[in-house]
Amino acid sequence: MHREKLIMVCTCEIAGRVRGKGFPARDLPSRMKKGVGWVPTNTMISAFSPIYATPFGTGGDLILVPDPAAEAQVDFGDGSADEHFFMGDIRELDGQPWACCPRDFARRALAALQDAAGVRLLSAFEHEFSYTGVTDRPGSPYSLDAFRRQGSFAEAFIAALRAAGCEPDSFMAEFGARQFEFTTDPALGLAAADRAVIAREMARATAHRMGERAIFAPILDPAGVGNGVHIHFSFIDAAGKPVLHDGGAADGLSETGRHFVAGILHHLPALCAVTAPSAVSYIRLRPNRWAPTHANLMSQDRAAALRICPLLPGPDVARQFNVEYRVADGAASPYLALGAMVWAGVDGVRRKLVVPTEGLPLPASLGAALDALEATSQATDWFGATYLSAYLMHKRGELASLAGLTEAEQCARYAETY
Q1: Residue 269: which CATH number?
Q2: Among 50, 323, 332, 361, which is least packed, fewest CB within 10 Å?
Q3: Is residue 1 part of a domain?
Q4: Which of 72, 259, 233 is nearest to 163 (CA)?
């Protein structure tokens, strides 16, 4: 059978799903300049497919333009079509960034950090997911048995990650039923979010070729263990020197780092609407689930919203030093999650905010988190009025679509899509 290679240019918008358009690979040089056609209302496609509401109507035209720095091309060696796609920017027809482009949202936040503090963000996403290719057994958490029973999935997945430009760091059986976790090496700036999107898609692509699924839904069973996404971050200066750490400080944070962390904690109730953006995210964020419930900073404590990670002895302590943001999950677009976290931190730097002694409770529902986001005056500056309004409309439509469903039924719906 004759075949012609295709490439897809993609975006990861409000619903956290990866969508886009394909084109013949031979057209790549021209598509790198002109992109593919896109429309504003596409950003309002829900996680469950319907468009519940849209401020854009049926009008408007945009372009989705590939970024050569965000390409994934993986041959799985099984005769299937290559995974070949680019993450791209949503632009107006004149080439200017569209007001609701998720990559531009993150890019602007990272530029604001550099302007406010003279530093760049180095970060990595740690992902938890459920793999359908194994059965749950008593005693499986962190076990060699669970690691063994996933078969060749992990080896194929790690190979795919590396081929896609995401340097793998670790893979393990996690605590939950059929749950696994992987991490990749940190990357500078926007590349960390690109790699988070690509890495998740490599897990899904690998599982698909094995007749299984890698599910990144926040929680599959209300009585079970949730799947989180943790964002590890640090700073480097213009010379590449790590500058988040201050060995003379009790908490190890530099002055800029402490203001940045304070900004995140100050805005965390609002950030939840972006980084934990599903109805079932708040089942995971309950007491006694090894997940955050308060806007707090702790050292080496996995119940904290922000965790100061442990250091190993050696000469590179400052380079090891990082803080982990733990109030995120796989329903979030990595661009929006990273961007919102950075915008909040930048506000802390600009206003020289102080880390609170006691953390306020996190919102108990997505509705409460959305209200907190809407009430945050700075959020309009971060998103822009158009994007913020669209985001709130999108997520409130998603919530309304779940009315009357039990928590178990809601979990099942999210498991189908993520």
Answers
A1: 3.30.590.10
A2: 361
A3: no
A4: 72
CA angle 107, 111, 114 (to 5 degrees): 145
Q: Which helix (H) or strand (E) holds 20?
A: strand 18-24
* pLDDT tens figures, 50-104: 999 999 999 999 999 999 999 999 999 999 999 999 999 999 999 999 999 999 9
Residue 195 belongs to domain spanning? 106-417
The count of structural domains within the chain is 2
**Cβ partners under 8 Å of residue 209, min gap 6:** 76, 78, 80, 156
Q: Are 206 and 75 in contact (CB under 8 A)?
A: no
**For residues 193 and 195, what is the distance between their CA atoms, to the nearest angstrom?**
5
pLDDT top residue among 102 and 247: 102
Average pLDDT over residues 133-156: 94
Lookup: tokens for 294: 């308060």
Q: Max Cα separation, the chain?
A: 67
Which residue stretches of 181-294 are H helix? 190-209, 255-275, 281-284
Rounded Cα distance between 293 and 98, Å, is: 35
Segment 123-137 shows an average pLDDT of 96
Question: Would you state the structure tokens that stand for residue 391, as one six-digit string?
Answer: 């985001």
Give the count of alpha carbons within 13 A of 15, CB side only. 23
Look at residues 51, 72, 99 and tell me which one is the last residue of a structural domain: 99
